[in-house]
Structure formats: C-alpha cells, structure tokens
Amino acid sequence: MSKVRVLIVDDSAVMRGLLTAMINGFPDLEVVGAAPDAQVARELIKTVNPDVLTLDVHMPGMDGLEFLDRLMRLRPMPVVMVSSYTGATTETTLKALELGAVDFIGKPRPDAAHSMDSYAEELADKIRAARTARVRGRSLARPPVAPPAPRPVSQSVAAPTTTAASPLTGKIIFLGASTGGTEAIKEFLLGIPATCPPILIVQHMPESFTQSFAKRLDGLCAPRVIEAQGGERVEAGTVYIAPGHSHLLIRRAPSGLQTELSASDPVNRHRPSVDVLFDSAAQVVGRQAVGVILTGMGKDGAQGMLRMRQAGARTFGQDEQSCVVYGMPREAFLIGGVEEQAPLDEIARKVMAAASR
Where is the Response regulatory domain (predicted)? Predict the structure, then answer.
C-alpha cells in the first residue's frame, strides 16, 4: 500500500521541522513538502499532489482560514488544522471545520518531550483518517440549512421550566460523534425543535473547545445548548454537551434524572467517551433511550450502542455516504448495535419520530 503523502503548511520553520520528523517516523506516512505560507503551499500542491494537508491558522499574508476557503472551492482535499489551543484560535478552528477541514489538533510543545510520542501517534491517526475522509468542496456542498427563528430572550437566559423528560413520552436522546462530528451535530440539531426531549452529546474534543462549541450551537439551534457541568436536572428542550475533560453520564437522583461528570480513565483512548455515555443510558434509561452515532474515527460508542439496543432503546447510525469518516457508525452497525442507518439529513426526523412513540 502506498504511503500517505502529506504537505505541511506552517510559518514556523521549527514547527515545520518538528512535524516533518514526527510524520516521517511512521512507515505509512511521508512528508512530500513543507510551505511557510499560502502562496508557496499553492504551488507545492500543484507539483507534489499531496493526499493530506496540515494547515496552521496564523500565517503571513493570506491566513489559514482564507486559504482553506479558497482551497475547498478550487481543489477540495483533506485538511487537518494544526494550531495552538487558545480562546481566539478555538473560534477560528471551529470556523475551519465549518469551511471543510476534516479534523484538528493542537500544536506540539517542543519543551514537553514526555508527551511527544503520544502526540505523534494522535497526529498520525488523524492524518490516516483524513486520507479516507469524504471531502465536500465548498461549491459542491449542500445549501446550508436556515437556522431557526431566535428564541425569546427569556428562554435563552433562563433554564426551561419543562419536566425532566419529553412531555409526551419521557424519551431521552443520547448522541456520539468524533471526526467530522462538529458539523454533523450542527446539522442534526438544526432539524430538532425547541420542544425536543433532553439530548446528551459526546463529541471527541479538547476541553478548551467544548464551551465554545456549545455556545456556537446555542446561537444556531432551536433547543437550548449548554456545556454540562454535572448535577443539572435533565430537562426537555435542552442539549447537554460533554466537557472535554470528563466523561458524561446520566444518573437517577431524588429530584429526577441528572447529568454526572466523571474524571475516570479514558475509554477507547477518549475522555469523554461515547461508550461511557451510552452505557449509562442503557443502565439508567433503558427502553426510554434513543441512541444516535454519527461520523467518527475508531470504534468508540459501538459496544455501548449495542448495550443500549439490548436494553430496548431505539438506535440510529449515520450512513456511509454522508459520513466524513465511516468508522464509529460502521463498527456499531457491524456488531448489531445500529437498528437503522440513514443519511445525516434524515436522522433528526427519524429520531424525533422514534421519540414521539
């Protein structure tokens, strides 16, 4: 099998050298070029024809976002953003994913030698996944879904007064995603009404991103979206995003169902883990749960979804054609965890239909 050909775009010579050494340390990966800016990158793309591009946000001249936007319109290809995790860069990285980047990773710290090996493994995994990802060019992408009308101010700033479950059925929705999931979750939630059952979500994402991600979704979607803090009463009309530092679970308390956070060891190399969320759904909610697994690399969530289905839950998986990376949904489907596969643009409707029964 041929090597994955990688082009590095970063204005720092030190960072280009460090990333090159890391990537070339894997026998199935090869750096075929390194560019300090967008202009050089554009010429190298023509000459070396890379499979995957790693891209920094901050560069001289044309910044990473503008370059990415043009690239996805003119020559769509898999892009992994490599940038520092700071407040401003968090928003920029989320924008890059919206523009078509497959995934992102923080920059390695040359002074943190003890973590270099694990960082290199994570970077290599993301590059491999990007190589197989379905990339949709900006001009070829489906028209964006119009966001719902803004919620009344009182609903946006105050906790809803609804009961701890869907008013009609008591159903609760549990969702997991990874690579490609930020945009998939957004599209899913754009199809969900404000009066939805409670929704608990795990998206593999560093802790510096989850609050910004929840805030972004809250401004776009009809339901209220928050980053879970642990101990919240699970209420209809509210979406709970797992924080990047902890597992998210559901538990019973005297006052009703509540969120719970756990700093226990990573599961499937992830914290938060989809399996942990789904396992708690199977144990605590059982047949009143509806499980959803969207695009993502690896197998996190597959076993948990199977246990949900065995406990009587309805379960749905994103189909291969609409996934950025058909990893997690595939693994769940192969072991029998997924009751029904569907395109991303149909899953919200199917899930709401299941929750209304």
Answer: 5-122
CA distance 324 to 322: 7
Q: Which of 166, 300, 319, 322 is catalytic?
A: 300
How is the beta sheet containing 4-9 ordered, strand by strand? 29-35, 4-9, 52-55, 79-83, 103-106
CA 87 to chain centre: 18
Given 83, 166, 178, 246, the catalytic residue: 178
Q: Determine whether domain 4-132 maps to CATH 3.40.50.2300.
A: yes
| CATH class of the 153-355 domain in this structure | alpha beta
Q: Is 153-355 the same fold as 4-132?
A: yes
178 is catalytic: yes
Note if 84 is an active site residue.
no
Average pLDDT in the chain: 90
- The contacts of residue 122 (CB under 8 Å, 6+ apart) are 105
Within 10 angstroms of residue 230's Cβ, the number of other Cβ atoms is 15
Say whether 12 is catalytic.
Answer: no
What does the pLDDT look like over 317-335, one tens digit per residue?
999 999 999 999 999 999 9
**For the chain, which residues make up each domain, given as ranges?**
4-132, 153-355
* Closest to 212 (Cα-Cα) out of 58, 87, 85: 87
pLDDT in tens, 109-147: 765 555 888 899 999 999 999 999 999 765 444 444 444
Instruction: Kindly report which listed range (34-43, 60-69, 189-198, 295-304) carries the lowest average pLDDT score.
Output: 60-69
Query: What's the mean pLDDT in 208-226?
Result: 96
